Amino acid sequence: MKYEVQYKTTVTKWPIVPSSFREYEEIDMYVPTPPQRVPMINERLQSLKRPVDCGDNCVCCLKELPEGKSFCSFSLLNGWESECPNRVQKVECQHKDPEKQKICRNS
User: Fold this and answer.
1) What is the C-alpha to C-alpha distance for residues 96 and 51, in angstroms, rounded to an integer?
2) How many domains does one find in the chain?
3) Does residue 5 sit within a domain?
4) Beta carbons of 69 and 59 less than 8 angstroms apart
5) Of 12, 62, 64, 77, most Cβ neighbours within 10 A?
6) 11 in a structural domain
7) Is residue 12 in some structural domain?
8) Which domain holds residue 84?
9) What tens digit of pLDDT does each residue of 14-50 get?
10) Is the pTM of this model over 0.70?
């Protein structure tokens, strides 16, 4: 720190950018408008993946996981693995029962 302060040089004109490079456009009476989405972008963002119904014994809805079961695990060889079919597809679960939706680990 002391070295930087001791050998610091003073520059009167910084940064040196040619004035022809700077192009300014005068804005008069600016009215902000919300961004508009192009329909093509919406189509590209849609996914064809749909959640499937998990069974009653699916690991995503169990209050306590039994010994030897895990909701989701990762290995370098296989990537992310889960017994929940929606977690495997990387889709959030959608349960018809609101209580089940609240306890689901994948929603």
Assistant:
1) 12
2) 1
3) no
4) yes
5) 62
6) no
7) no
8) 51-103
9) 666 666 666 777 777 777 676 777 787 778 888 888 9
10) no
